[in-house]
Design brief:
single chain, about 375 residues, alpha/beta, Rossmann fold, 2 domains, seven-stranded parallel β-sheet, six-stranded parallel β-sheet, 15 helices, about 45% helix, about 15% strand, globular
Length: about 375
């Protein structure tokens, strides 16, 4: 079986899209498929961990903001029939439209991973621009695709808002790259404990709330070393965060690490003790939460990341509303009890191994394709 995946770019600025793709490739391979990735080259792409997938890149066109590429469009139209299924991540950008049109013409199943972009919260951001795009093509694309949602909550929020066809909606957990599951069991907590935030510096990500929580801990006299790693995407917000964190940076309690490559992300995960994911905007999953669990970290997670509710029900994470006081309270509970911190990390590691491994996700992907194949051809 040959599977084609289309993504706008292959650089770390893609954030969770790239991490998810790395796991998806491994999941397809575990299910016996061969993967090809088609993307636009922006000069920043990395080799990535794509489990032997063939990677094809194409020159960008204009306008750049819409990720236009005539080369990618032409190649997809010519080669779509060579694949048994075609998938793409996200909406609004041209590569997804190209992939959908090529799959439709070739009569191949088209799997769309909305990546949170159909959430009411996301649709309310730049509403005029998105409304225009919706009625100029995105609406038909979404309603004629087979949609892969990463959690039940992600599915429920989008389906209820857009009245999606239930038969075209499937829940498939985001898979982890296998190398994130090779962390040893932690035997002790660092001194001082290392508190990690792996997020782009953007208002939706709650970095400012996290920094203010750290200020509260510092005033309480709690010992910690905090690390923030991620791209700086909003200049005004970055300035606000740096001003808020100035004393912590000067005292050595907060390190501003910037954008990391995949190796750097994994290195920080494997040597930290707690991950905080303080998102204030809704996210379809929260890939970094699963990565941190696999690495054995205790996790403080915003309920706006839609993987958090199932982890809260399982007693795996410290689930919070993304306010500085709730984040600080959760961190205080963990920092004050190293044994509980280690226990949470071990529970999370076991859960991630069972639920987010590529073998489990690969089986689910095959099940979805089977469900699609059983539908009448005119409905595919």
């Amino acid at each position: 079986m040959n599977v084609l995946h289309v993504i706008p770019g292959l650089n770390r600025e893609q954030g969770g899209l790239l991490s998810t793709l790395e796991g998806l490739c491994a999941a397809w391979v575990s299910a016996g498929a061969k993967c090809t990735i088609a993307s636009i080259s922006d000069g920043k792409q990395e080799d990535g961990h794509f489990s032997g997938a063939v990677v094809k890149t194409f020159a960008p066109g204009r306008p750049r903001k819409l990720a236009v590429s005539n080369g990618l469009k032409t190649w997809l139209a010519a080669h779509a029939r060579e694949f048994d299924a075609i998938s793409a991540q996200g909406i609004w950008l041209s590569p997804t439209r190209y992939a959908f049109a090529a799959a439709l013409k070739a009569k191949r199943p088209f799997l769309l991973l909305p990546a949170g972009m159909l959430d009411p919260d996301a649709l309310a951001h730049h509403p005029l621009r998105k409304t225009l795009r919706w009625w100029l093509g995105e609406r038909g694309l979404v309603h004629r695709s087979h949609l892969l949602f990463s959690t039940q909550e992600d599915h429920a929020r989008a389906a209820g808002h857009l009245k999606l066809d239930p038969s075209r909606c499937h829940v498939v957990q985001n898979p982890l790259r296998p190398d994130f599951l090779d962390a040893p069991l932690r035997q002790e907590v660092s001194s001082p404990p290392r508190v990690l935030c792996l997020n782009r510096v953007h208002p939706r990500k709650g970095v400012l709330e996290w920094i203010r929580a750290l200020q509260l801990l510092s005033k309480q006299g709690m010992a910690f070393r905090a690390i923030l790693a991620g791209p700086e995407e909003d200049a005004a917000y970055v300035r606000e965060c740096r001003i808020a964190g100035r004393e912590l940076i000067e005292s050595g309690q907060l390190e501003w690490a910037g954008l990391l490559d995949g190796t750097g992300v994994k290195a920080h995960l494997f040597k930290s003790d707690i991950l905080v994911h303080p998102a204030v905007g809704y996210e379809n999953f929260g890939m970094v939460i699963a990565e941190a669990m696999a690495a054995g970290l205790a996790v403080v997670a915003s309920r706006r990341a839609l993987v958090t509710p199932q982890l809260e029900r399982a007693g795996i994470v410290e689930a919070v509303e993304p306010t500085s006081h709730e984040i600080a309270a959760a961190l205080t509970r963990l920092l004050a009890n190293p044994a509980q911190l280690l226990r949470r990390g071990r529970l999370g590691q076991a859960y991630a191994t069972a639920h987010f491994c590529v073998e489990a996700v690969g089986k689910r992907l095959l099940q979805v394709l089977g469900e699609i194949a059983r539908k009448k051809p005119e409905r595919q």
